[in-house]
Amino acid sequence: MVGSNLVKNLSNSNSVSEIIGSNRKDTNLFSLDETTKTIKDVNPDLIINAAAKVGGILANNTFRTEFILENLKININILEALINFPSTKLINLGSSCIYPLNASIPTSEESLMGGKLEPTNSPYAMAKIAAIEMGNALKSQYGHKIINLMPTNLYGPNDNFDLNSSHVIPGLIVKFYDAIKNGSENIEIWGTGEPKREFLYVDDLSNAVDFLLEKEWEDDLLNVGSGEEISIKELSYLLKEITKFDGDIIFDTTKPDGNPRKLLDSGKINSLGWKSSTSLPAGLQKTFEWYENNY
Ligand code: GDP
pTM of the full predicted structure? Predict the structure, then answer.
């Protein structure tokens, strides 16, 4: 979702002369040799690392081994390959789950490593934290320019819409869509519905990256969020309205809630002059329409 959206949006950017996408078919990031070869062949001014094994709460909590191993391998290979290319800048994408469970809300960049991680996605978070630390090492030892962008929960077209591995928004879109199609009387939401999340439409993330391309980077860690949070219960009622489903919503409390609240303090990037521009209802509407037209 993020990579294809960056390619689409940055192709029209005044700060970019050429953008070259590289997906898993083009470069095997589990191989240091292949990763190095791509960097050598393309010789880019800047790399944006949007590669990761990502998933929703169930996938993260079930495939804990794969989430830490695969994400560590991707990040180790990119950063190790970059040692010999100190003039190639890197924008490294992470996630708000790098912050500890007890971090103050809204969570600022200073909260990193201030406590224990939320258990359902700690393997993924640990791999993302390792990437930040590796980047800092390259910066101080070899003079690389690296910025670590930490977006809040992302959603939009080209997201993963597989019910077992998706995040909440694509998961609920599929559930509402199928329930309408099959004439079901209700849909099931995982957990209590009480947790709160902050969501960012994927175009807004690409727009933040574009915005940063024109800036001199000083911060190594930068949060990117919409600044608004909503409970999963409220989100499900909003989607019920958008999809025009007229049945009931049932909460399956045998499924985990995960983090009770995730809201980033995006004050740093806001003070540079960037703000998200897509409201949640508008972004959900676009994503639902995209799903209807593409599945
Ligand atoms: P998280 O932000 O890492 O916890 O990732 P998710 O987007 O997977 O989950 C966010 C919240 O939505 C959690 O409290 C889930 O239990 C809840 N949720 C409710 N229904 C669903 C669903 O159908 N799929 C997913 N992934 N989460 C759901």
Answer: 0.96
CB 144 within 8 A of CB 138: yes
Nearest CA to ligand 1 atom 19: 190
Residue 216: predicted pLDDT: 82
Which two tokens mark 234? 């409220």
The Å distance, Cα 10 to ligand 1 centre, comes to 30
CB of 232 shorter than 6 A to ligand 1:
yes
Q: How many domains does the chain have?
A: 1
Angstrom distance (rounded) from CA 64 to CA 60: 6
DSSP 119: G
Catalytic residue ranges: 124
CATH of the domain at 7: 3.40.50.720
- The 10s digit of each residue's pLDDT in 13-65 is 999 999 999 999 999 999 999 999 999 999 999 999 999 999 999 999 999 99
- Which residues span the domain enclosing 147? 2-294
For residue 284, the CA-to-ligand 1 centroid distance in Å is 16
